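EI: anyone free to look at a 138-residue chain?
SC: sure, send it
EI:
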Amino acid sequence: MIAVMFMSVALIALLCVLAYTLAIYALPFMLGLTAAQFAYQTGSGLIGAGLVGLFSAGVAFGILAVLFETIRSPALRLIVALIFAAPAAVAGYALVYGVTKEAVPSDIWRQIFCIVGGGFVGVSALARLAAGVGQPAR
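SC: here you go
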């Protein structure tokens, strides 16, 4: 029983590290997933929908990364970083909700944990992206 508890704590820590690492890619992933779902529902098939999703996610990431690197104004760079960080906060909320769904019996405390977890993931993604906001773009 104790081994299972340690394994679950290690798994939760691994999920948190994974969420922190992949947080800045939440927006392109969500856009790609939405485009793939739309393409599949309009009859493109599984392979066509996958290609549409990959292409749209790549284009979204490329456009936002180029904007982030070429904009010189710190305020506009911060806005682009916030555009990246907002879906990361939603993904963090969903991650904490999935982890605490069965473990926390109180709905109020579960929502508190989810909001705090989503906030941490969003702020960490924002901090990773906006680390160079005060510096001019290269």
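EI: Helices lie at 2-22, 26-41, 45-70, 74-100, 107-129.
SC: 👍
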